[in-house]
């Protein structure tokens, strides 16, 4: 492939100045960033798959306006977090260590896209009071998924080497092309937000994509495979309130997924968003932050 001038490192590489790190009991490094109001109500943010803490930048202003301290870790093998074979069942332990490190005894949790299952897995933590899903993926038992999710899930199970090549190719183009190239993987409409221009949204989405692949695609492939397998917990066993925000034009996570999640979760509400996958995050992210705060009953 022809060479091209690289984009500035600060535009996409894991930024040590933005993230802090926690040493976990097994010696791994867990990286995280915080956005919004440092003195506000803590909300634990689970990024998508592929994804990283960077996507939480899109919620920085809504978090600050709502008095939310948004805590966004990179899951193992992503960004500055060291690799490990962490499953959906294991992830709450990492989350608990981070909450303890930050001296947090009560928090809301928000999951975007493939981060939805990881947010739901945290239901068993005593610190987690409410959960919100923004275009969150569902377990195989809910039935239909978006066409993108179906395709990537099948590759992760049957031909992971092909999915690795696909991710590497996407990364190569994302480094060299306009940021709008990356947006095309998570949106079918022009991103709109009251707080950021579309060009800034695109820059953040590209930085998120590239940060997620900074250590290679192996962890992303492993997560995709995890999400396409039966989950280690039942939706019916989740007792905390869950607010489901589902884009009606979402090609990544089908609208039927949001409907199914809301029906099967014991204490859930459903809000349909007139947008696609990324638009669900930018349009309803502020509402999700409000929904998971302690003072708000859903």
TrEMBL record:
Top-level taxon in the UniProt lineage: Archaea
Molecular function terms, GO-annotated: hydrolase activity
InterPro entries on file: AB_hydrolase, AB_hydrolase_1, AB_hydrolase_fold
The keyword Hydrolase appears for this protein: yes
Ranges for region Disordered: 1-21
The keyword Oxidoreductase appears for this protein: no
Domain AB hydrolase-1 stretches: 43-281
Keywords assigned: Hydrolase
Record-given protein name: Alpha/beta hydrolase
